[in-house]
Design goal:
Elements: E1 12-19, E2 23-24, H1 34-47, E3 59-63, H2 74-81, E4 89-93, H3 99-112, E5 118-126, E6 132-133, E7 149-150, H4 151-156, H5 166-176, H6 181-200, E8 211-213, E9 223-225, H7 237-242, E10 264-274, H8 275-280, E11 287-288, H9 306-317, H10 334-344
Parallel strand pairs: 3-4, 3-5
Antiparallel strand pairs: 1-10, 1-11, 2-10, 5-10, 6-7, 8-9
């Protein structure tokens, strides 16, 4: 994706890009369901485009992984609660960490094929509100104890095939690519410092749609959340480096809570349009989508799938790697970014 290139595909433009602040697990946004967060993001994205009417949005693709107890088709709930009409076509996408990215690809393809001219894409998640399950309750508990299943762990953080926590697959990546604990810690420190600088400098302010949440104490006014929560916490580098491994505790583990991403709540929304729609509504593009790349391999090797997807995306967009100014790799674990940088020969400065 980018603003320049020689792609032969029909032009698709991003004209609005908005997100909520990112809240910590059981933190500032825990009172908001994934539906509320997603609705807020979509509504805020459209409010930035005064020439658009709600009925101009023909379709919504919206990512959501942890859908338990949210009700039918979370994408449609988010859309209707954001003020879009009943005629809006809505599809919920579950591709785990790639759900929102896939929703953008589907939105772009929908426009490129002439099926629609204006599509909303994005995703929403509230890890704080994922319920626990009683899997045997429906057929009755005949004898003995019942065990609650954590929906967050079961449906979001556990490999469906090996039944291992995905942190163990990060450890596998560390072994496969010889990335030590120290490198992961130092990358996490650099990453958090960048996030803190971006937050304190107001670099995220334009993309964040502040959200009002109920007061923590009765009788107090509602609170306005307008900053990502994690970067506001002071960084203790010594403590980070001294944390015990979270998944392998025999002395060989390298993945810790602070060199992995935290559990979080938040939502984001983009508005994508065709070139004729852009011109007829006098819209200013933020970016043009030039291409994309999907990749898959053995489930436990998900950590290095970006090393396959990125070259495919560059080829699809007809963009040379050396012409790219910035790469963004999902930092589910520090080792993921480090492994893909190594495999692709990328400069971390980009």
């Amino acid at each position: 994706m980018g603003s320049t290139g020689t792609s032969s595909l029909p032009p698709v433009y991003i004209v609005s890009a908005v997100r909520t602040p990112i809240g910590q697990f059981q933190g500032s946004l825990a009172s908001q369901s994934a539906i509320q967060l997603g609705s807020h993001a979509i509504k805020s994205a459209l409010e930035r485009l005064p020439s658009l009417k709600p009925e101009d949005v023909e379709e919504v693709f919206y990512g959501n992984v942890l859908s338990a107890n949210l009700g039918q088709n979370p994408a449609r709930q988010c859309a209707l609660n954001a003020g879009l009409p009943n005629s809006t076509i809505c599809t919920t996408i579950n591709k785990v960490c790639a759900s929102s990215a896939k929703s953008i690809i589907l939105a772009a393809q929908t426009i490129m094929t002439g099926t629609a001219s204006c599509v909303v894409a994005g995703g929403t998640e509230s890890m704080s509100n994922v319920p626990h399950y009683l899997p045997t309750l429906r057929r009755g508990s005949k004898y003995g104890h019942e065990t609650l299943t954590d929906g967050l762990l079961r449906d979001g953080l556990t490999d469906a095939y090996s039944h291992d926590h995905m942190g163990l697959q990060a450890e596998e990546c560390s072994r496969d690519h010889s990335i030590p604990r120290s490198a992961q810690d130092e990358y996490a420190i650099r990453s958090l410092k960048k996030a803190q600088h971006a937050s304190s400098s107001g670099l995220f302010a334009k993309e964040i749609a502040p959200i009002e949440v109920p007061a923590a104490a009765r009788g107090k006014p509602p609170a306005l959340v307008d900053k990502d929560e994690k970067p506001q916490i002071p960084l203790n580098e010594e403590k980070l480096r001294g944390m015990k491994p979270a998944f392998i505790t025999d002395g060989t583990g390298t993945v810790t809570a602070p060199n992995a991403s935290p559990l979080s709540d938040g939502a984001a929304a983009l508005v994508l349009v065709s070139e004729p729609f852009l011109q007829s509504h006098d819209l200013k593009p933020l970016a043009r989508i030039l291409g994309w790349g999907d990749a898959a391999q053995a489930p436990s090797k998900f950590t290095t799938a970006p090393s396959i997807a990125i070259p495919k995306a560059l080829a699809h967009a007809r963009v040379r790697k050396d012409d790219v100014d910035a790469f963004e790799i999902n930092e589910a674990f520090a080792v993921v970014a480090l492994a893909n940088l190594k495999l692709l020969g990328l400069d971390e400065g980009k």
